[in-house]
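Batch manifest, entry 17 of 40.
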Amino acid sequence: MMRAGKLVLVLGMVILAAGCQRLSGGGNQQPAPLPATPTTPVGAGTLAPLDPNAPPVGTTSMDPASGATDLTSNPVSAPANAQQVGRTDLLGGWKVASAGDNCMAFMTLTSWSGGYRANTRGCTAPVLAGISAWDLSGNQVVLKDGSGVTVAQLYSSAPGQFSGQTSTGAPISLRR
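Output type: structure tokens
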């Protein structure tokens, strides 16, 4: 009987040692390191100074001959049915339609020097792709590019719907 007790004790210690070894990683087996991520080399040279009047990167410049409208000095007049709008009415995602382009716009209350932050997704028109801010001027919604230039002015025509004009003269609408 004494021999069976010793055998159970030794067997228990072997199982215990094997369990501890498994919990501690079982030796020096480390996972293989991940391969390095390829990167493009950084070029050397000097950068030209920033031009505050340059259009945002990825957009084309506004050529006065192209029929662009100066919305700052020549604002779009409010329609008779324009409704009052509050800042929280504009928060969130919107479907944008303008000149055959259909994409999304997202508006937040994060402060920006020209109002509040906005961004677009899936817009192919440079004017729409360059939207990076929005603000309210009375009951008018003003969309601006990265340099603070007004790119569209809209009014609420019904709850969850805004319509107006872009700086290129194209009609624009926002809908939920």
